[in-house]
Amino acid sequence: MSTPLRKKRANTVVWILMALLILGLGGFGATNFGGSLRTIGSVGDQEIGLNDYARALNAEIDRVSRQIGQPVSLAMAQALGIDRVVQAQLLAGAALDHEAGRLGISVGDDEVRRRILALSAFQGIDGSFDRDTYRLALRQQGLSEGAFEAQLRAEAARAILQGAVQGGMAAPEALVARLADWVTETRSVTIAELTAADLPEPVGSPDEAALMAHYAAHPADFTRPESRRISYVWLSPDDLLGSVPLDEEALKAAYQARIDEFVTPERRLVERLTYPTRAEAEAAKARVDAGTADFADLAAERGLTLADVDLGEVSRDDLGAAADAVFALSAPGVAGPVETDLGPALFAMNGILEAQEISLDEAREALSGEVAMDRARRMVAERAEAIEDQLAGGATLEEVAEAEGMTFGSIAFSAGTEEGIAAYPAFRDTARSVTAEDFPTLAALDDGGVFALRLDAVEPAMVEPFEAVRDRVAAAWTTAETASRLAALGAEIAAQLANGATLASTGLVTTRHDRIGRDAFLDGVPAAVITEAFAIDAPGTARVVSAEGRVHVVALDAVHPAAAGDEDHDRATAAFAAQIAQSIAGDLFESFTRGIEAEAGISLNPVALDAVHVQMQ
Fold first, then answer.
1. Which residues are within 8 A (CB) of 167 and not within 5 positions of it... i.e. 6 or more apart?
2. 532 falls in which pLDDT band (50, 70, 90)?
3. Which helix (H) or strand (E) holds 63?
4. How far from 378 is each of 196, 232, 239, 366, CA to CA, in Å?
5. Quick one: fold of 12-167+601-616?
6. Mind spelling out the 3-state secondary structure of 439-497?
7. pLDDT digits (tens, 9 = 90+) for 534-546
8. For strand 333-340 and strand 310-314, is the pairing parallel, antiparallel, or unpaired?
9. How far is it, in rounded angstroms, from Cα 130 to Cα 578?
10. What percent of the chain has pLDDT over 90?
11. If one looks up domain 227-241+374-460 in CATH, what number appears?
12. Residue 36's pLDDT is what?
């Protein structure tokens, strides 16, 4: 036993145009391949470079890694089909480039320049284009300016091609109207819950034959799950806390390690706005002083929000050359201009956070428990080697417990056991996998404790004897029989309503709900009741709903279509029209791209693909 220490394809054009070219910049190392292999394949006369594939695959693997919260290896990516998705996206992009070239679609230098200047990845702190940032980002990707600008030119051509194919696409009006009507329709309903008190006579007690029949018909309800008899030894830091002496030096060390929590300098809430020249900064400050503009106005004029210029809580040390000016303010205000490494800047001070100092004596009580627990964990770790040696030497759990002062116990463990030591995931994992042939070995718990266990016996799942579960069978029969009779009573009431009666006239306790929507939430009413209310065809009709162990009768009183010009209906119409049109346009463009691929011809070079994969491993 080992020791357990431990939409469809996204819019092709958008992915290729943005993610491949821009969003990945700076985040992934460039990959360059030498030798005769330069491309992984082509569509028509448009080739796909090895470096382009490597960058795209790296970018997608990183995106998936961030999405699932753990690193994804190349092997995992291939098992998930990520490599094939990237290849398909690049082939689609190449197909569009091929078709754009065939049709002579392109853009001029001015459009390429406009796109470069608009990309935030290449902007400096003041929001304007920064050539050094531009060069650095391209160098990190192994791209020359010419190559990148060629990619942007291709992007623009694809966008023109996409607009020509998808432009003017509209959703069918009848479909949009029907969906909007459906989703905005409301209904008035009356609901009654049936209980045992509504039955004409009590359910009574079942006879022996009824109990046996119910027991035989529902064996799963009376089956005991597999149970494993586990013996274990356990040493927890809590077991040693009483013997841990207060260590003054350790207390001081813990205090120093957390000194930033106990001793904090005065801080200010600050925002910073940098200007290209001091004259511009002084002019902006003059407007603030005159009351004709505030800091938010100044930021907006530079295309920024207050969130963009917020420095948060800062101390003197954080502000550098601006510290004296900002900390000279005794109330919220604007200081500057101050010359900074980024140029002349104005600083808005929005609040003062006073300095705080908590002495060691004041923190002693809070730190003592932490220090003692840390020492107890280390004591457990120090004793672990001796425990492991005894287990390895063939000592039984009982002998180890006695020799090392560990807790010895046994537990009937099954899938739902979570009491005591079984509350620890590591113990549960080991208890599930241990076999009778495994020797006990020491394993760690997440609180610093250690344990070892032994499988003594396995009791297979089995239907418990009738006599052992007789009371449970009786309770289950009563519940099932009551529900059955209530459902039958509900059917009788629904029939009465079909003949002209009203739910309120039946003598049941009822509640009326006016103009509820399909997504309505009614306190104390199962969602299935609302769903059934909207499945009724005509007012005056009722249905019986058995859900969550309860029985309801729901009667439809009226149907309320959304009125013309209703705000919710108009909103739903607009949303459905946009969604359906986008979906149709996406399908059309995907078909268009596949058609190009089929006509121009696709080729992929397995050797080149393998070369990329080998270098990425």
1. none
2. very high
3. helix 50-68
4. 61, 21, 13, 20
5. Triger factor/SurA peptide-binding fold (1.10.4030)
6. CCCCEECCCCCEEEEEEEEEECCEECCHHHHHHHHHHHHHHHHHHHHHHHHHHHHHHHH
7. 999 999 899 999 9
8. unpaired
9. 37
10. 36
11. 3.10.50
12. 59
**Whether residue 460 has a cis bond before it, omega within 30° of 0:** no
Residue 409 carries which DSSP code? E
CATH class of 266-354: alpha beta
| Cα(406)–Cα(233) distance, integer angstroms | 6
Question: In the numeric block, which tokens belong to residue 320?
Answer: 């550098």
Q: Inform me whether the pLDDT recorded for 526 exceeds 90.
A: yes
SS (H, E, C) 328-346: CCCCCEEEEEEEECCEEEE
The whole-angstrom separation of Cα 106 and Cα 441 is 69
Task: Judge whether 276 and 343 are in contact, CB under 8 Å.
Answer: yes
Confidence (pLDDT) at 316: 83
Beta strand 542-547 with 263-264 is unpaired
What are the residues whose beta carbons fall under 8 Å from the beta carbon of 323, sequence distance 6 or more? 316, 317
Residue spans per domain, the chain: 12-167+601-616, 186-217+470-560, 227-241+374-460, 266-354
Region class of 304: left (phi > 0), else alpha (psi between -120 and 50), else beta: beta
- Round to whole Å and give the CA distance between 297 and 278: 18
What single string gives the DSSP state of each residue in 347-378? EEEEEEE--EE--HHHHHHHHHHHHHHHHHHH
DSSP, res 436 = T
User: Identical fold at 227-241+374-460 and 266-354?
Assistant: yes
Rounded to an integer, what distance in angstroms lies between the CA atom of residue 17 and that of residue 29?
20
Q: CA distances (Å), 516 to each of 185, 529, 531, 558, in order?
A: 9, 12, 11, 11
For 397-440, the pLDDT digits (tens) are: 999 999 988 999 999 998 888 889 999 999 999 999 999 999 99
Query: 579 and 74 in contact (C-beta within 8 Å)?
Result: no
Helices (H), 499-605: 527-533, 567-600
Maximal C-alpha separation, the chain: 99
Sign of CA dihedral 91, 93, 95, 98: negative
- The amino acid at residue 445 is L
Nearest to 532 by CA among 524, 520, 523: 520
Decide: pTM greater than 0.70. no
Helix ranges restricted to H, 199-272:
208-217, 237-240, 248-257, 259-262
Could you give the CA distance from residue 497 to residue 241 in angstroms, rounded to a whole number?
71
DSSP symbol at 502 = -
Which amino acid makes up residue 136?
L
pLDDT band at 16 (very low <50, low <70, confident <90, very high): very low
Per the listing, tokens 């004897």 go with 465
Query: Quick check: 570 pLDDT over 80?
Result: yes
**Tokens read off for 365:** 């009580």
